[in-house]
Structure formats: structure tokens, C-alpha cells
Specification:
Structural class: mainly alpha
CATH class: Mainly Alpha
Low-confidence stretches: 5-22
Bound molecules: heme C
Shape: globular
Distance between the termini: 46 Å
CATH superfamily: Cytochrome c-like domain
Helix content: 55-70%
Mean pLDDT: 81
Length: about 140
């Protein structure tokens, strides 16, 4: 029994070490970092891919860009703020949590009036995909 536990621990350690060395690899690649990470995450996660499609098709891109502020804050700024504050974008989109990225009343009103109309008929699982996409933008 002891032997089995020992083997299990050793193989877990070997497994973790291998995982680490693989993670290091992409850092040496020369592709611009932001473009690469977003693309990789989108390909690796079907939710993120669906969310990105919805974000485009629902017209969110009229006011939001991944990298810079348009009318609304950049997605990378939103994802960073929600990570920092441990906020829940889903609750914001569902109208139960207040805005935390840009709390200017005029700005909040613009976003609110759009949310109410744009998200009609969008299911909770689709909303979760949109949230996964926003959170994937670093
Ligand atoms: C007409 C412009 C406009 C459109 C269209 C729009 N937004 Fe926004 N959005 C804003 C503005 C302005 C803010 C900043 C005010 C705020 O944070 O509530 C914002 C903020 C946000 C935030 C951050 C909320 C916070 O905590 O501050 C999220 C998340 C967001 N938008 C998601 C979306 C999604 C998803 C869509 C598409 C369904 C969308 N937006 C469409 C203008 C827009």
C-alpha cells in the first residue's frame, strides 16, 4: 500500500513537471503576445469562440473593442477589473450587479439601455459564453 502511494506521488510530480515545461514553451515564440493568447484561448475553448461570435453578432462591438476604448471600456480593461475585484460579469449583464469598470452615470445609462434591448432572447448559457469570451481577453 505504501509503495502505491509513493508511486502515485512520484508520478503526480513527474506529470506536474512535464506540464510546467510545456507551459514555458510558447513564451519564446515571437508572435505578438496579445494576439497569440487571444487566438489560442479562442481555439482551445468552444465557449469562448461562441461568446466571441455572439459579441459580434449582437452588436456589442459597436461600442467595445478588445484593445482600446470605443464608447465603452476595452475588453481587456473589463476583464482585468473584474479579475481584480472578483466581480461577476454575468450578474452585471443580467442586471443584478452594478457597473464597476466605468461608474459614470451617463456611461452606465448608455450601457444599460443597450443591454435591455440587445440581450433579449439570449439564453443564460449564451450569456456565459459571452462572459467567457470577455474574460479571455487579457
Ligand atoms: C452603445 C454603446 C454600447 C453597446 C452597444 C454595448 N456597450 Fe457595454 N458598455 C458601454 C459603456 C458606455 C460602458 C461603460 C458604463 C458601464 O460600465 O456600465 C459599458 C460597459 C460594459 C461592461 C462593463 C460593466 C462594468 O462593470 O462597468 C460590460 C461587461 C459590457 N459593457 C458588456 C457589453 C456587452 C456584452 C454588449 C453587447 C450585448 C455591450 N456591452 C454593448 C457601451 C456599450
Amino acid at each position: 500500500m505504501r509503495k502505491i502511494v509513493f508511486i502515485a506521488i512520484v508520478s503526480a510530480f513527474v506529470f506536474v513537471s512535464c506540464g510546467d515545461s510545456k507551459k514555458e514553451a510558447p513564451k519564446t515564440a515571437e508572435t505578438p503576445k496579445i494576439e497569440k493568447t487571444t487566438k489560442e484561448v479562442v481555439q482551445a475553448n468552444p465557449d469562448v469562440a461562441t461568446g466571441k461570435k455572439l459579441f459580434n453578432s449582437k452588436g456589442c462591438t459597436a461600442c467595445h473593442n478588445e484593445e482600446f476604448k470605443v464608447v465603452g471600456p476595452a475588453l481587456k480593461v473589463i476583464s482585468a477589473k473584474y479579475a481584480e475585484e472578483k466581480g461577476d460579469i454575468l450578474k452585471f449583464l443580467q442586471g443584478t450587479d452594478a457597473a464597476i469598470v466605468d461608474t459614470d452615470p451617463g456611461q452606465v445609462a448608455i450601457m444599460k439601455s443597450n443591454l435591455n434591448t440587445m440581450l433579449v432572447g439570449v439564453s443564460e448559457s449564451e450569456l456565459k459564453s459571452i462572459v467567457a469570451y470577455i474574460n479571455s481577453v487579457k
